[in-house]
Amino acid sequence: MATILLVEDARDLARVIRRELEAAGYQVLHAADGRTALALHERERPDLIVLDWMLPELDGLEVLRELRRSSGTLVLMLTARSEEVDRVIGLELGADDYLTKPFSMRELIARVRALLRRAELLRQALAADREGSRMPVSYGPLHLDPDQHDATLDGRPLDLTPNEFRLLHLLLRNPGRAFSRSYLLDTVWDEPVVGDRAVDNAIHRLRRKLGPLGERIETVWGVGYRLRPLQPPG
Hints:
alpha/beta; Rossmann fold; Arc Repressor Mutant, subunit A; 5-stranded parallel β-sheet; 4-stranded antiparallel β-sheet; elongated; transcription regulation
């Protein structure tokens, strides 16, 4: 059963939303202000947060900023503000979806289900990418054997850190697939890392160590990185 943290200071609305979410099969926690919400999130680690914009003490945007410093928990923002610039601000700060008041309970439940379903598919993909294949993989003159933790280029061994090795392995298994920096952090790095510079630095080092072949690791602007597929011979 997924756990949802509802952050809403309007008592009557919070009661209705909680009732509907529980009827849909979710466990619901409730906070009426931003500081309580952050404390509950830290203690309970919910699967999703339904977050009102206008809150006492800390407003929804401040709560979202604090959350995104260390957490990727799904956030569905609720607000009476319907201007496009307000929606953009919320989404750019890291909200996963946005619902403008007044809204129907049916739409709220549908948005919650869609977010949780998307998160589950992402978890499955992440688990598959973390596990990976143990079969050797080649890319032109580049060869990588995960069982032996061995990588060679033109027959010469490559000196790769564990993170660089896992990053290269993921790219080699998925030529043409674009990966976001946050996905690469979740998939490749064992230790928690704040910010995207760790990925950019690792890509920079990989490109340098691969020489001319490193140019085939492409930057996908606004997304992250991908390995350009090799052209078939002929």
